[in-house]
Design a protein that fits this description.
By secondary structure, the chain is mainly α. The chain has helices at 2-11, 13-33, 40-55, 60-76, 89-107, 115-127, 129-132, 139-142, 152-168, 173-186. The longest helix is centred in the first third of the chain and has 21 residues, at 13-33.
């Protein structure tokens, strides 16, 4: 059996060397994406240098890698100075996964549901509050938030949901269309 394995490895040795070189390239790309000692700008510069190096080759696999990297470049290194604790999109995804897992544990379903989309601006902060607070919340801790209002984006999302639910309903759809038509006619641009 060992002889068969050795013969098989000898047959594909050239292909394995090529693949090992691709793996080295991918490791270099992954190193630029991981937040560490370097700043976001330094990692972005290295990422762009890798793109240039991969584009200069004739290898179709490396050219495809460069194309994919270019397509991700616009969103990978954003928010430097604005979101210090969130280094890049990978860290943002790790951060946003926490409330979603909490939401899945609450209702026991695989999907977190639309609740995070609609109530997200306030819900995410509430679900993650325990991470920064040392113990149980007291009335004094919550008192400053008694006059808090939901942000406009959350109100808009809830309003859009109400309209879409009416639009899906066979009974309420004609009423919704009549209401929208009335609002359109009353608008100053009509």
């Amino acid at each position: 059996m060992a002889d068969c394995i050795d013969r098989g490895l000898d047959e594909v040795q050239a292909e394995q060397e090529t693949i090992r070189e691709y793996v080295k390239d991918i490791k270099e790309v992954a190193a630029t994406l991981e937040p560490g000692e370097e700043t976001c700008a330094d990692r972005q510069e290295k990422f762009e240098e890798l793109i240039d190096r991969l584009e200069r080759t004739e290898d179709p696999i490396r050219l495809h890698m460069a194309t994919v990297m270019i397509s991700f470049l616009a969103g990978l290194f954003v928010g430097e100075g604005k979101f210090e604790e969130i280094k890049d999109n990978l860290d943002l995804e790790r951060w946003f996964r926490l409330p979603k897992s909490h939401e899945r544990r609450i209702h026991g379903h695989r999907h977190a549901g639309v609740r995070i989309v609609q109530d997200g601006p306030t819900l995410v902060l509430a679900l993650d509050a325990h991470a920064a607070h040392p113990g149980p919340f007291t009335a004094g801790d919550l008192l400053p938030y008694r006059t808090a209002r939901e942000p406009p984006c959350q109100r808009d999302a809830l309003n859009r949901r109400k309209i879409m639910r009416k639009a899906r309903s066979k009974k309420k759809r004609p009423i919704l269309l009549a209401e929208l038509e009335r609002r359109y006619r009353e608008s100053p641009n009509f």
